[in-house]
Each structure stands twice: as structure tokens, then as C-alpha cells.
What does this fold into?
Amino acid sequence: MSTLQNRLQHYELILASGSPRRKMLLEEMELVFRIDTRPVAEVLPQGKSPEEVAVYLSKLKADAFEADYFDKRTLIITADTVVALENKILGKPSGKEDAAKMLRQLSGREHRVITGVTLRTSQKEKSFFVSTEVYFKQLMPEEIAFYVDNYKPFDKAGAYGIQEWIGHAGIEKINGSYFNVVGLPTHRLYEELLLFITDNKV
It folds into this structure.
């Protein structure tokens, strides 16, 4: 049993996300948790940096839970990932044409993938973000069409998943956490959870 697993024995850990990728990453961290989500209107605030937006959205998801949902042993993890191209946020595409347009914008350029994470119990809340730089090669039109037609990345910010075909064929390098681009900065999350529960008295 890892140090984190041992310390989390006293908590009910909840992942407030319907993302299969975040579920997979927590499972690979060998954490015991359940999934519970609340509907949230993800309206992007104006005048904030992409980093601030990612944290804002993660806090919004945590705030969707009523105060009486928590007891001292309930620990909720919420997260939101945004893709930023020169500080312009690329959200989830509305369909095939929008997805292809986003990939054309990312082609041959560097962009940032920022994940905001919020940890919350009845006693306190902590938010943080992790940013990763991602570099796409110059994508050919047929590569974009193949990926969009076969992988339908309409539920993904920036219209791509690094763990899918486009990541293998199109991404030249990254600077930072790979798992952050998948959906959760697992190394930072591990460290933040350790600090959070060490300071939290149950």
C-alpha cells in the first residue's frame, strides 16, 4: 500500500468528473474512489487568463455540491482542462468542421494545455493548476480528416486526445506533464493530496 493509499483510508474519495480518461488515471494511481457529478453551466469568465479559467471551472464544479453533501471524511476532486493557443482558449468542437478547424489552427504550432484541479472537504478547499506545452508538427489535411472521421474528438478541448492516433502521429514533443494533457496532472495531484490530508484533521 502506498503512502497516499494508507492516508486516504479514512476518507471517501470522490471524483466529480464523467471523463473516462480521469477515471482511468485515478485507477492507475491505485486510488479507491467513486464518481459523482453535478450539472454545471461552464460559462467562461471574461478577462481571465487560461490558467485562471481552468481553476475557476474546477472550483465551479466543486461549488456545485451542496454544503450538506460533505462530512469530515468526504474528499472531492474536480478538474477542468483548457487548451490555449496564444492565450485564446479552444473549447470542445461543435462538430466535424469545427474540430478540423481547431486542428488546422494547432498544426505546426505550440499551444498550452492547462488543467485546474480543486480538492474540497467540509473543512477546506485547495485549488491549483498545471500547464504543459505541446508541439504539433505540420498536419496534412488528410491526417486531420482521418483523425476527425475515425476518432470523433468532439468531447475534447482543442479537438484532440494526446493518447489517440493524432498524438502518436502528430505531436513532436511536449514540455511538462504528459498525464496533464490526458486530463489530470497525476504527479502534482499525488503531492497535493498528501499535503491536503496531512493538514486536514478527521
